[in-house]
């Protein structure tokens, strides 16, 4: 009886492992991209909710700014500005934001100020999520 493995057996095992890794790594990359983009889309929706509810709770106007490098909520009370919430933007995770930088205002009753809809398209690799904000303040995430 012999102990150990031969060089041929080792080469065959390594070749099979290499082929399996060749199939598994791209799938894992796509899965990771989907998770990161979904998290960024959820952050945009959360920022919108924080801005709206902060306006109601503080009884003052709030301003939400969405830029590739940062997402921030500020309370506007007369001439004073108070930073309420801040997160790094999608660019920090390697996600492209195809919409221009945008600012949303909310009145003390929670209604949006202005009459424009907005769509933020977040993309990393082949994964795309669109965050759609209606002029009435509703948000939804469209997955493709």
Please sum up the structure shown.
The protein is an alpha+beta fold and 144 residues long.
What overall form do the CA principal axes indicate?
A: elongated
Strand line-up of the largest beta sheet: 3-2-1-5-6
Q: How many helices does DSSP assign?
A: 1
SSE run: HEEEEEEEEE
Q: Pick out the low-confidence regions.
A: none
Percent in helix: 25-40%
* Beta-strand residue fraction: 35-45%
Number of strands: 9
Q: Determine Rg (CA atoms, Å).
A: 23 Å
Mean of pLDDT: 91
Structural class, from secondary structure content?
A: alpha+beta
How does the major sheet shape up?
A: 5 strands, antiparallel
Termini Cα gap: 58 Å
What does this molecule look like?
36% of the residues lie in helices and 35% in strands. A hairpin with a 5-residue loop joins strand 8 (127-133) and strand 9. It starts with 6 loop residues before the first helix and ends with a strand. It has one helix at residues 7-58, and strands at residues 61-66, 70-77, 80-88, 96-97, 102-106, 112-113, 118-124, 127-133, 139-143. It is elongated. The chain is α+β, with helices and mostly antiparallel strands and 144 residues long. Strands 3-2-1-5-6 form a five-stranded antiparallel sheet, covered by helices on one side.
């Amino acid at each position: 009886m012999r102990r150990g493995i031969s060089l041929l057996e080792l080469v065959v095992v390594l070749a099979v492992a290499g082929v399996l890794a060749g199939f598994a790594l791209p799938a894992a990359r796509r899965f990771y991209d989907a998770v990161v983009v979904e998290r960024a889309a959820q952050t945009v929706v959360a920022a919108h909710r924080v801005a709206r509810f902060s306006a109601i709770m503080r009884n003052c106007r709030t301003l939400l700014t969405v830029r590739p490098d940062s997402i921030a909520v500020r309370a506007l009370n007369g001439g004073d500005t108070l930073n309420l919430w801040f997160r790094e933007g999608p660019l920090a995770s390697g996600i492209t934001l195809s919409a221009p930088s945008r600012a949303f205002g909310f009145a003390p009753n929670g209604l949006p100020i202005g009459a424009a809809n907005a769509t933020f398209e977040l993309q990393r690799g082949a994964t795309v999520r669109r965050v759609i904000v209606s002029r009435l303040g509703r948000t939804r995430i469209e997955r493709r």
